[in-house]
Amino acid sequence: MIKLLQIPINFxxxxxxxxxxxxxxxxxxKEVFSSPFEFKELVRQCYIIGNRSLLLVGxxxxxxxxxxxxxxxxxxxxxxxxSWMPSMVSISIVREIGPxxxxxxxxxxxxxxxxxxxxxxxxxxxxDAMEVSGTNPFKYLVVTRxxxxxxxxxxxxxxxxxxxxxxxxxxxxxxxxxxYQLYFNKVFNAxxxxxxxxxxxxxxxxxxxxxxxxxxKGYNCKKGTAGVGEASNSAVVYTSMLLFxxxxxxxxxxxxxxxx
Amino acid sequence: xxxxxxIAPVLKIKDLKKSFGDNHVLNGFTMELxxxxxxxIMGKSGSGKSVMIKCLVGLMEPDSGDIEIMxxxxxxxxxxxxxxxxxxxxxLFQGSALYDSMTVRENLEFPLRKNKEKFKQKETLVLEALExxxxxxxxxxMPVELSGGMKRRVALARAIILKPKIIIYDEPTTGLxxxxxxEIIELMREIQQKHGTSSLIITHDVDCARVTANRMILLIDGxxxxxxxxxxxxxxxxxxxxxxxx
Lengths: 260, 246
What we know:
heterodimer; A: mainly alpha; B: alpha/beta; four-stranded antiparallel sheet; 10 strands
């Protein structure tokens, strides 16, 4: 009986959380266009988020392309369709697998990092200290981080996609005697405007979601040091969930406008 | 301080109330702080001292009551006006609250960002503030490289860098060894004498209260239970008051 009652209680808490997140997002849009603008902090955050994730995204993309090609090759060979490999790999990676995988990696690396950093600042009263010194901490800490992830995550995903295609080309070159020139010719012939634009647009929303959830969880962190771990952990869980929802909506809309 | 009652206070709290659910933390707390005065507020842990000062600087919204700082009612101020008023108040946090990702220099420069004139003189102001607390050699260190006492000194330097009219100390000696605590208390006195600031000191450290207080308020059951000099309160026969001085 208690367990049955717990479901609506948890659902209510979930809805409250969604409401709070929406309010937090609306505050971001209100503050992002009002002065003063924290350009220096924005550039610093872009550097931290972009540069420090580069290696992780590069390695993930490379292995993704490598493994995807190795796993798909035997099946395509069975049907005598190995010449379709570059087209299949490029469309799959650029449209779906690359953005989603790299966004999930960024959720784990960036969103949890932001959640832990701001959470720790909240419990050690650093955010309060900023507020009493006459600085708007929301603008300085939240707006800059969301802006930075919105700008940098798409670039990281494009970089990751490129590395994944390079990984795939290496496998094709070694296993199928396909030259790099031929491989990339086939890749660029296969990719169309309708593959690239929706995929790039959705990465902007991925970046926004990663920054928004990370900052929301960290900025509203409570319950002392235990709350910092919780903020970091729930930032990853919520972001991952949100990424799948955004992806579903993006594919649905792209299907209407681009007939993919 | 009785003669000062004819002068307008720099800080005034009237009938402040704040509850968290059924827990009534402040039940109509009233106090006034006068220019150049060191006012100590003592109370047990959980008595609402920190809640009171958070309401004072606008970090928390009270349920009811009036707060006036330098004749400005803070609940009537907009964001920018409140931020401008906050630059006239120095705040020393219990845990120092230094920004982890910044050096000591950057920590001290941070409050200057709002004021273009002062930001131009940042080098001089940072060095001057660090000289006041005897830590010029630590200017390029990160907070993680500082001891507890050094962190508190840097936090104090950050609190005074804008030459505030009022300094609020939240448990300035908590978590420090007795010798370092004495050094911090001495520093607080020096700063008060040098800059003529008004100080509001929240503490449960009797030694700190004895050395620094011109006047004391005991915060019990969410109200201003007793008020007077350290000597007057220390010799009181009231059992609730005596409990603080045992």
